[in-house]
């Protein structure tokens, strides 16, 4: 079946550094990818929607200059957390569905810890 | 008011018990409804879609009440492996809105 591969699974970084998270769709083309963030004991919150070849759409309250999203191909979307701070520590998950497919496939998530 | 509300639990039940989770949503225009299961710090996995007529998949039964904007999930004959967080998911637009989840702990 369709698989979404997300890397890295865990990253620990110093405050002020940038972290890139990759999300790849395997065996299918992902025209749309969603990026979620989940703080402990809270729900998955949608951060942004990325569409291949166009600018991402950010949810209210999410800084587009801090969370850079690139969806340059039908199989790859990246989320870069720029100048990360401890409050950015969270679980980030990507998801994707192909054209005409209602089903959503999730990456395995990235646990980001900013020291 | 949150778009999707769930009782956070935890629900602690013995093996073999029947347990029910509820979820309410605020947007009456919502079209699709799902239950997802999430293990600790893992990605959510689709458990089942929820249809107006109600649907069953083995030990799991999902119900939708559009008039009351209410969704339920019933788990019969609970297994230890059912221990997880169950997320109610609603799609008022093309995006999925997740509830905070209800934690279930099944004990021997």
Structure description:
The complex is a heterodimer of chains A (about 120) and B (about 110). With about 120 residues, chain A is an all-beta fold. Chain A is built from no helices and eleven strands. In chain A, strands 2, 4, 5, 6, 9, 10 and 11 form a seven-stranded mixed beta sheet that branches. In chain A, strand 5 and strand 6 (about 55-60) form a beta hairpin. With about 110 residues, chain B is mostly beta strands. In chain B, the strands form two sheets. In chain B, strands 2, 4, 5, 9, 10 and 11 form a six-stranded mixed beta sheet that branches. A five-stranded antiparallel beta sheet of chain B has the order 1-3-8-7-6, with no helix packed on it. Chain B is globular. The chains are: A mainly beta (about 120), B mainly beta (about 110). Chains A and B meet through strand 5 and strand 9 of A and strand 10 of B.
General form of chain A = globular
Q: Average pLDDT of chain B, to the nearest integer?
A: 91
Using a beta-carbon cutoff below 8 angstroms, give the protein chain pair with the largest interface and the number of residues from each chain.
Answer: A-B, 20 and 17 residues
Q: Could you state the oligomeric state of the chains shown?
A: heterodimer
- Which structural class matches the secondary elements of chain B? mainly beta
Biggest sheet of chain A, open or closed, and with what strands and sense? 7 strands, mixed
Helix-strand topology string of chain B: EEEEEEEEEEE
Q: Whole-number average pLDDT of chain A? A: 89
- Report the strand count of chain A: 11
Ranges of chain B where pLDDT stays below 50 over 5 or more residues in a row are none
Strand content of chain A: over 45%
Total count of strands of chain B? 11
Distance between the ends of chain B:
37 Å
Q: Number of DSSP helices of chain B?
A: 0
* Helix content, binned percent of chain B: under 10%
Q: Give the fraction of residues assigned to helices of chain A.
A: under 10%
Distance linking N and C termini of chain A: 37 Å
The share of residues in extended strands of chain B comes to: over 45%
Low-confidence stretches of chain A: none
Helix-strand category of chain A: mainly beta
Sequence of secondary-structure elements of chain A: EEEEEEEEEEE
